[in-house]
Amino acid sequence: MSKLxxxxxxxxxxxxxxxxxxxxxxxxxxxxxxxxxxxxxxLADDLGVGKGTLYRYFPSKRELFLAAVDRVMRxxxxxxxxxxxGVEDPLERVSLxxxxxxxxxxxxxxxxxxxxxxxxxxxDRERPTYFEHRExxxxxxxxxxxKMIASGRMRDVPVERISDVFTAALYGSVFLxxxxxxxxxxxxxxxxxxxxxxxxxxxxxxxxxxxxADGPGGT
Amino acid sequence: MSKLxxxxxxxxxxxxxxxxxxxxxxxxxxxxxxxxxxxxxxLADDLGVGKGTLYRYFPSKRELFLAAVDRVMRxxxxxxxxxxxGVEDPLERVSLxxxxxxxxxxxxxxxxxxxxxxxxxxxDRERPTYFEHRExxxxxxxxxxxKMIASGRMRDVPVERISDVFTAALYGSVFLxxxxxxxxxxxxxxxxxxxxxxxxxxxxxxxxxxxxADGPGGT
DNA sequence: GCGGGCGGACTGACTGGTCAGTCCGTTTGC
DNA sequence: GCAAACGGACTGACCAGTCAGTCCGCCCGC
Lengths: 219, 219
Description:
Largest sheet of chain A: none
Largest interface: A-B, 72 and 71 residues
Number of strands of chain A: 0
Helix content of chain A: over 70%
Radius of gyration of chain A: 22 Å
Strand content of chain A: under 5%
Oligomer: homodimer
Number of helices of chain A: 11
């Protein structure tokens, strides 16, 4: 009886769980010590399992690491999806997306570390995980820019340029903020970044609605 | 006589030369293989010297690496200085600076790699080299923004926000461009980035001079 | 029911290989 | 001839990955 209910509720420790547990601990450890300095023995110790067990779930340290990075990126994009779900207005969507992007990395600084580690340690990879994921989603964002240009809400600038600069600003902000340490001071707030970016991207008519510019000037 | 003049001009193979040679080779090697996978033996081989010699100039692999990073950053700032030397107009200075910044990293991709490697391998460092250098120079840039705000050429936005977003966009652009591989497509061109950034930063009056915005829109 | 045995999840000591850093013999320049 | 500079063999630490063995839950034959 107790045996049966146990079998249903807590069957030994079902493998999928174990895999996730390993990924959790690995993410933490890799983020804390870096790929090279994170010893698999330490990971096993953290989990309270034998080292051999790790290799039952992942063929190598490298694959384990990459699985952790991939999971992080999947979660980022899920988060973006959630944040923008049901919102129709493209401008609103972009704002929410940017905010969610920054929030995600602020809430999960270990994700930033993992991206850095991937770039640093696996130079051989044709394309880092970050880009693989970005490429799968960037088109949707560009579509929003196109719509806004069509409706006269954005200046007619190549959408690739818009998305590239947006990405660069957000990406750069995440990294600088994460690196810089002095979290409070670096512009991590989406509002600040969007303020600057939008006023380069929005059409005049859209722009005057949200800003009070001032003074004359000349070159 | 020849001894004397030689002692002054070229004492033996002056250590500074040898030191620079080592740094050159180390920069190349670290950038190519990453810190961990760059073996000091390989470096010695590249240079055609014994491994012991390296340790006559640098106390450890770590110090050697950090010296290389530091040199890179010094060179970047020299380059920025040069690029803007003699130019009075603050707007012009900022443009030239941004351009020089991107050019520098495009011409020296190994510098990007070194910055990544530093962050990845030396998590213990209070502040990465990049920031140490940035902090020594950022005030000057902010001064330009202040001037432009005062003269009505920029919107009255906190200068910290301006410099943070500018830095983020440039920094992000360098990294994305470097990572992304497909160099041609990513907006690495300063003109594109500045176009977007300036129109969020410049005052209306300054803005109308350089853009033709269009169409209406509304939220 | 019940015991024997089967499968497979798990363990951790061990191996093989890698390298940073050392150290002393040698060479070079004066 | 004597420093100072150099070379490169050597060592000690470290660690990913392995594998022979253990342990435990379950199933099957009685």
